[in-house]
Task: structure prediction
Amino acid sequence: MAGHSKWATIKHKKAANDKARGKLFAKILRQVEVAAREGGGDLDGNPTLRTMFQKARDASIPLDTIERAVKRGTGELEGVTYEQVTYEGYAPNGVAVMVEALTDNRNRTGAEVRSTFTRNGGSLAEPGAVAWQFDRRGQIVVPRSVEEDDLMLTALDAGAEDIVDDGDTWRVVTPPTQLHAVRSALEEAGIAVDSSDLTMVPQATVPLEDAEAARKVLRLIDALDELDDVQAVHANFDIPDAILETVEQ
Result:
């Protein structure tokens, strides 16, 4: 999964411009809103909201903006009602793709996702077709400057499952229910945290060792990620660093 993680890091750096940040803010705030609507506005009593609240803070979204999103979710402020929808499909080369969306119009979003798959050489699949290939996990990104032994000792003791070397960063993998506890333990130990989130981790990956094949898959992933209603895109590709550098150039 190293290639996929490195691609995510590259995308994060590209998202630093104002337009991309505005779009990212809107997506995260929608996640905060839905979490508050489904589980209430109390951070201590709603683990999903706590995770999304922290994600918003990591993205440097102002606190009052986040709090307004929570209030829209709980009904204290007027807002749009969003529905969670997951789409499954295949990218070129048989790469499995899961798309998580929040929408106020299921028909519109479904049509946009289907069209994006088709235009970029992929295909939408029936529900359940690829979901079995992924597991829900917590993921914490830690700077590479942190000593591996210190990170491993603290993270595993707090309930983490694995520590992955992604080159520029460490990735701490946790059970979904342990994400907050592991992050808290790292911060209490003085270990810096770049970000944390819930994600879908593939059980196995499809290696893309040809630059053109990699470009085709990443073109679809990027196009899906650009859709306003799409919150996250998960896929089981793995691109070697040398191929990824070629694609970036």
Q: What stands out?
A: The domain at 2-74 is CATH 1.10.10.200 (Arc Repressor Mutant, subunit A).
